[in-house]
Amino acid sequence: MINVLFVCLGNICRSPMAEALFRDMLIKENLSDKISVDSAATSSWHVGNPPHKGTLSILKKYDVSTEGLVGRQMKKEDFEKFEYIIGMDNSNVRNIYQLTGQPNHPKIFRLLDLTEHKKDVPDPYYTGDFQETYDLVSEGCSALLEKILEEHPLLVK
């Protein structure tokens, strides 16, 4: 089983959106028995809370399930459990490095570095633009799935 963790500041907007979108992709590609996905925060602000209403609304618009999404904080042990730890912005990545004690480890990277955008996923908690975030996260998740399938070709056999 390949384990993927999406991380943002509060785990109520971007990372649960990525978790839900990626899970939806895995179901559609019949890969949910080979790849698991979770999300977490670098802060403890929203532990135990559901995603932001804007995240829930945009996922509902695209008929993406939000079942089981609950805010949690990333733990140091997550480094051992997950093969891919993806931050939504540079600040998240720096916080993940600090939390895990693994600076510049290749399993930790920024989602949009897999796309032509090579930038941070804007936080809709502050921008209010959940559509832009959805579009970028969707593109990043597609690129991530391609990366995983390239690095683990036995998953599709």
Could you give the topology of this structure?
Elements: E1 2-8, H1 14-28, E2 35-41, H2 53-61, H3 78-81, E3 84-87, H4 90-100, E4 108-110, H5 124-127, H6 130-151
Parallel strand pairs: 1-2, 1-3, 3-4
Helix pairs in contact: 1-6
In total, the number of domains comes to 1
- Characterize the main sheet: 4 strands, parallel
CATH superfamily descriptor? Response regulator
Q: Figure out the total of helices.
A: 6
Helix content: 40-55%
Mean pLDDT rating: 96
Q: Taking strands numbered 1, 2, ... along the chain, how are they ordered across the largest sheet?
A: 2-1-3-4
- The CATH architecture classification is 3-Layer(aba) Sandwich
SSE order, one letter for each helix or strand: EHEHHEHEHH
Taken as a percent bin, the fraction of beta residues is 5-15%
How big is the Rg?
A: 14 Å
Q: What shape does the CA trace take?
A: globular
CATH class equals Alpha Beta
Unreliable runs? none
Number of strands: 4
CATH topology: Rossmann fold
Pfam families: LMWPc
Keywords: Hydrolase, Protein phosphatase
EC number: 3.1.3.48
Protein name: protein-tyrosine-phosphatase
How would you summarize what this structure contains?
Keywords: Hydrolase, Protein phosphatase. The protein is α/β, with parallel strands linked by helices.
Can you characterise this structure?
The chain has helices spanning 14-28, 53-61, 78-81, 90-100, 124-127, 130-151; strands at 2-8, 35-41, 84-87, 108-110. The protein has 157 residues and is an alpha/beta fold. The protein has one domain (2-156): 3-Layer(aba) Sandwich (Rossmann fold). α1 (14-28) crosses α6 (130-151).
